[in-house]
Amino acid sequence: MSSVIPPSGPPVIEHGAGRPQLAWEHVESVADDRWHVAVVTPKRVVAQEAPPAARVKVEWQPQKQPCIEVLPDGAELWRCGYGETSLRLPEAIRHSLVVLVAAPNTAEVETLAADLLSGGSADVVLVDPRWPSHRQELLGRQQQLKADQQLLVITTVPAAGEPIGTFPAGGHGALLRANDWSRLVEGLKYEGLRSVAEAWPGLKVIAGHPDQSWLRGVGGCLPQEEPKGKNDMVFVRLCPGTFAMGSPEGEQGRSSDEGPVHEVTVNEFWLGKYEVTQAQFQRFRKDYSYQKGEDDLPAANVTWSDAKDFCEHFGYRLPTEAEWEYAARAGTPTRYSFGDDEHKLGEYAWYYENSGIRAHPVGTRQPNPWGLHDMHGNVWEWVQDCWHDNYDGAPTDGSAWEADKCQQRVLRGGSFNFDWAEGLRSAGRGGSWAVYRGRGGGFRCARGPRRQP
After folding, report:
1. How far apart are CA 29 and CA 193, in angstroms?
2. Can you spell out the DSSP letters for 387-423?
3. Of 166, 171, 134, which is closest to residue 149 (Cα–Cα)?
4. How does pLDDT run across 390-415, given as a tens digit for each residue?
């Protein structure tokens, strides 16, 4: 009589063709007869349990993933920031994960998530107010961090019970409490590599070792363009700043509705590099056809509601009037973004004197210093704000100036249609009924730091 010795030892993982260079395995015993097996890439973990000595086959197939994956309960997995990055943490950390215990769609949280990803501090950021409810999506079933893993969990509320009890040991990482998210965003404005304790001093350490965890700074904010997205839209990052909105009384061509000049502080936002085109608008409204066969012309003959609905349909919004002028000026105090000499206007704008009284394809004149085209001319652009006859009482924080029973909205930038040079100044304003449709009226979209799928 002989006894049968059951198989023992860890499972064996067999990879098919196409395995990425940055892919690795985690195998961990979870019981006498069960093993936790995970295959990990920087952006994703796939895990299962297997019996001892089992052969686990892995097939690799290209698969597109959204930049932001919305989970069933509203939590979000972020996998990319402002664009592709080759920056990484030290070689000892192959996989870096960050959890922001906060509600999604919070501006400071989204900026922080995008900065962590863009700077190479994180491969994946989970924004989850109910952490650790999505621990498995981030780590699989592993109970401890591996030596080459880093996990940072950051909250602004007292952490107790389950968040502390489930924070994994091993690897690099910390569970931290901050006072506010904006301080963390500011804390990343440096070049190079720092420990978490150096980058974010003063955070309450609930668990882990921030002095043994690492972050890469993103430097100062610089205007930058992201690659064309799924909706064929290109956005330019505009950094926070303060500017003088409106025109001084002595400015040539000035109108009284452009005063008084007032200081406005604008948060970071992203603005469309170009005016929305006819081709883009037709994806939203199939029956739209302003000028057939002219896909690259700016979408015109649209109401304020048309413009607003288009932007919101794709996850964007209309810019506020303050954001629009901040972007148009691009750091300049002059009549135009290129200076005061209106004789140069034809290099930057389509308007009455050079347009032939018709719109032209977007992006065919020179951009302003921040890389935005057609901020002067081509078509007027709807913004979010209600029309007011002057700036008395206007917001100073960059927000839209709304009003009850608002029937007139603001248009900015001038157009090809009838506007002379003074109508295309950076401070120039127009207003019209929100239901107005004009052949010289179009728009562009804005958004926060959140990058769309």
Report:
1. 35
2. P-SS-TT--SSS-----TT--EEEEES--TTT--GGG
3. 171
4. 999 999 999 999 988 899 999 999 99
